[in-house]
Design a protein that fits this description.
The protein contains seven helices and six strands. With 171 residues, the protein is an alpha/beta fold.
């Protein structure tokens, strides 16, 4: 089947990709630390959904981090001081259009405004910000350009764009 159960040390020594998918709590705090990071191959990738202190440890190792987020809790986390500005840390915020398009794509009103507020708060604190956007079939080019112009005025440092299409049409 291609699946092999290994101990934690072997996992970090041998893996090309390690994905942490747990929340940060008393039981998971320090699950991965400097020792585990030092065991990883220099070419290995760490996908960290736990965030927080592990991001700080990776930044200290001068690893470039692109932390993707919908930004719903970003302002709260910034206020808590969990993250510190660094050239090694970039928040990549999901924005699928201007307010109408974005809120429709995430099926929740108000998310665009929360994301914009978070972008402003992060930029004020000196963080690097990029956005990641999916442009769907039938998108109005003028509205897409309006999104790019608006994000530029907010001072985002870069924009990643992907085409959206139905999965049955995916290559």
């Amino acid at each position: 089947t291609g699946i092999e159960i290994v101990d934690k040390e072997d996992l970090f020594l041998r893996s090309d990709f390690v994905s942490l998918n747990c929340d940060l709590n008393a039981a998971s705090h320090h699950m991965v630390g400097e020792g585990e990071l030092n065991m990883m191959k220099p070419t290995a990738y760490l996908i960290n959904a736990a965030r927080g202190p592990l991001v700080e440890a990776l930044v200290a190792r001068r690893k470039y981090i692109y932390l993707r987020t919908n930004a719903l809790l970003l302002e709260e986390r910034l206020a808590e001081g969990i993250f510190k500005p660094s050239k090694y840390l970039t928040f990549s915020i999901h924005i699928d259009g201007l307010q109408e398009e974005h809120d429709s794509s995430v099926c929740r009103d108000g998310v665009f405004d929360v994301a914009v507020s978070a972008i402003k708060a992060a930029k004020e604190r000196g963080f690097r910000i990029t956005t990641n956007s999916t442009i769907f079939l039938g998108a109005d080019p003028a509205r897409v350009r309006g999104m790019f112009d608006y994000l530029s005025k907010l001072g985002v440092d870069g924009m990643m764009v992907s085409p959206g299409y139905a999965y049955e049409k995916a290559p």
